[in-house]
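Next comes a single protein record:
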Amino acid sequence: MNQSDPEPGPDTGSHAGSGGAPDIEETMGRARPDETGGALLARARVASTLFGPQAGTGFGRFRILERLGAGGMGVVHAAYDPDLDRGVALKLVHVAARDRDTALVEAKALARLAHPNVVPIYDVGVDGDHVYLVMELVRGRTLDRWAAGRRWREVIAAYRQACAALAAAHRAGLVHRDFKPENAIVGADGRVRVVDFGLACEVQDPAHGEPREPRIVGTPRYMAPEQAAGAAATPAADQYSFCVALDEALAQIADPPVPRRLAAAIQRGRAADPAARFASMTELQHALARDPARTRRRRAAAGALALSVGAVAFAAGRRAPVSPEDRCASAGADLAAVWTPVARASALARLDDLGDYGRAVRATIAPKLDDVAARWAAGQRAACLDHQRGAQSDTLFDLRTACLERGLAAFATVRDLVTGTQADKLADLPRAVQVLPDPSACSDTAALLSPVAPPARPIADQVEALDRRLVQARVLLGAGRSAEARTAAASVVEQARPLAYDPLTAAARLVEGRAAMSSDRRAAVPILAEAQDLAIAAGAEALAVEAWARRAWVQGTSTDPAGALAGLDVITALARRAAVGAFPRALLYNNVGGVELARGQRERARTAFETALRHASGATGAGAVELVNIRANLALVLEDRPRADQLLREAIAVLTDRLGADHPDTLDLQWLRMSTIDPAPAALAFLEPLCRSSELHPALPNPIVECWAEAGFVALELDDRPRAAAAFERAARSRPGGAHPRDAAYAALARGDARAAIDRFEDGLRDWQQTPSEAWWKRLTRAELRLGLGRAQRALALAGARPTLEASLAELEDIVRDHPGASYERRLRRARAELAAAGQARH
């Protein structure tokens, strides 16, 4: 819906994507000159009541009120929707028949993009040769006209809102293709809405009914060089267009002069080479937000306010002095500006449209977000009051405010995740909410007055700005967006190194290394090792312990088990210091336990996990959810099955409260609990609800996808063959990447088709040959295939049943010895029973 050739029109805008059309009071051709938008809507309602919903010019259910504007990609009308009783902007796009499906898919993607600074789309569809979009009817002025005569700070603030809109679109996989100031409207509420996102399709000329020749889409004045050369529009091209528009707006401002740092950021964003621009719109947004005067203003604010209040009191004579409570009455407004309660409720309501799990996620995160918002506002008010009353120094007030601003940056990141999420990313949201910084930590004087030396004054503002960006990277990492987090952290590292402030570089390398762990463990090791060394040199003890623990786990479970724990005595001594805190200490012992378990040292692992659990009881904040794994790890190495079951119940209860009962992480622990549940009837009663919940997440990795297969094994043990066959068939259908040969074979066995089962088991065994140093779970799969083959052979009285069952039994005995658990023990019992029935039992 690009508007490279909009019709000329007045300066103000009143809709989504009119290409610079006038305000609705001024554009209703048949309206009286003094008729307001509300009166026009009332007149439409009356007409619909008297003459029916199709009164006047109609398009589907909509009554066309007036043509607002047109461009190369469609026409926009003000319209009345009688079904919802509201005025809307209706955009009609003529699309070639061959491109209609593509255009509709992208239009629906636009409709899913919910962000406070993107004009909302209520409905999309196809009617004849049109793709239509139904949007909010926004009253206001286009960004270029709004900016005229304003000061640079106001202009930057407005353009940052537009920048946030483009960043949200890019995260959702959408590109605007034609950003310009006419395609952003400043509403009567002061909020900027970006409009007129383009559709990636050829446009049909409505005058001739023929497809136009493919053309370069965009407005030449704002078009990136690569786009003008015919390349596809990309997020980098949107950034170029944005910076050209912002540069034009700031060029009209003479007093006060625009800071050089802003000019440099804009020039980088409009670099001819896309690679020289910012890595993302989010990074550009951060560059526009950096304000070296902020800290100075903080300190001056209280004194200036006190002087102004004193002057007013003096001038007023007997007027009552302003109280600290009155001075701090606006505390919390910063958070409301980032994500208003109304916008938050709207974004959360959109999750309901993403299915059953979307509704579950909304119910989980909505109260938590409200709680964080309330406590953040209370924390800001408390900081203001303490400072006004003289209860804290300027230095402590600055530290407290910086802490709250980091929380605000994290909250904004969660906002973007919620507003832009799709169904396959819903599980990220509860995780992200859980890693939001605890606002109460900003009132902890001992924590704020860290022993780590603060940055030198000339770089303090830069460090603070990068620290806020690092907080956002941590939220992305906590949400499971490892690739995005790694990119964001690496960008912070690049800009932190020239500042030579080791605590910041160490913290950023730690986040970068953690993000690398999910996809490239070998690369993660040197990154985490550098984070550890920098942290030790800077005296950042807690950070050093965490970096060492994560590096040891990566090495010990993948790249170098033998050398992973070198230096453990030194790091444990460091971890005992009071400044380290509960979380790094608990993480250290948990990861040591993981390394020992990978080495086969179950008793050493148990001791480490027990120590970790003791320290975890004092951990709070963002890391508390991660430490739930300690209970699960300890349960794995305990021979005391009732205690193991209790530990898993406790872990499941924590994750149910924090992430939701149907969250993949909670279901994963539920699956792990299967190792403690016997006998078979209790196991099947536990399994089937778990399997149904797991179907909310069709792309889940192992072991959840094994759920229906395990239910089949248990049902077969109970000789409930129809139930077993149905379970194995569901396992075969739901497995990502195609059915496992074991599932189809056991389904045939349960149905009583032993011959078909033999063929499938033999096919599976050909694909599952033994290899040197293979993982134990591969041996388990082969043992299961052999057990099933032996059962089918015995059912047909074939001579090969005995050696097949003996081979299965030998492997199962080894597996159960090293990995005891109810499900494996049931298989072992079945192997023994089958051999006994075959006349050659083993003991």
User: Anything to note?
Assistant: DSSP finds 36 helices and twelve strands in the chain. The radius of gyration is 32 Å. The chain has three domains: 12-289, 337-578, 754-843. The longest strand covers residues 62-71.
